[in-house]
Amino acid sequence: MNLLKTEFSSDVWVTATWDQYIDTLENPDYEKAKGYTKSDW
User: In Å, what is the CA distance from 37 to each residue of 20, 21, 27, 30, 34?
Assistant: First the structure.
């Protein structure tokens, strides 16, 4: 039997446009997610 294990990083900075940021936060799949911004990137 082959068990599939998915790993992901939770403490990483991801570059995104403001619209992508808002779309992600409004997505019900990320209801408990937290998001932060850094304006000088």
Answer: 12, 9, 17, 16, 10
C-alpha separations of 39 from 4, 15, 18 in Å: 38, 11, 10
Mean model confidence pLDDT for the chain: 80
26: phi then psi, degrees, rounded to nearest 5: -85, -10
* Angle (CA) 18 35 19, round 5°: 15
Q: What is the pTM of this model?
A: 0.53
Q: Please tell me what DSSP assigns to residue 19.
A: H
